Amino acid sequence: MTELTWPAERPPPHPFQLAVRAVILASAFAAVAFTRAAAVEPLIAIEVAIVALGALGAVMPDSHVGLLVVVLIGVGWIVTVDDSTTAWVLGVAMSTALFHTSMSAASLSPAAARWTTSMRRRWAGRGVAQMAATVPVWLLVVVVARVEVGGGAIVMAGALITMSVVTLWARPGDARGGERSGV
Question: Domain ranges in the chain?
């Protein structure tokens, strides 16, 4: 039978790690709630799987369970929601970004490790950056869905301009995984 007590040789989890792991579970639940709000007919099996696997991901953040949760969130959205431009997608996207960032942050160090202020600031910045891109991208999707474009040239030009701006904005060290100063 599985031992459910914390091993004596392992230090207890740091409170910040417990909080990050609670965010993992809460964000998986939030993604389900936002999808349910937009769904024509919710699929209980996918919802239960997302929340259960989100709980498992909170316990084992360095496993591949998080990838399965993100895939299930996407599949659940595609299967149950008819209007891809609904504002509910913002909640699903932000909760998925929060889930992903929290899983990554929780797997960064052992559960008992103390997080420094700079680590907290860096990971909060990463999460905010992911979520900040959500609204403009959604607005672009809404515009493209509602505006009749005569050809693909306008969309292609817009995509090229967007990629150029993103490329110019990114610093050389970012693509290679280098640290930026001042973060």
Answer: 15-134, 148-183
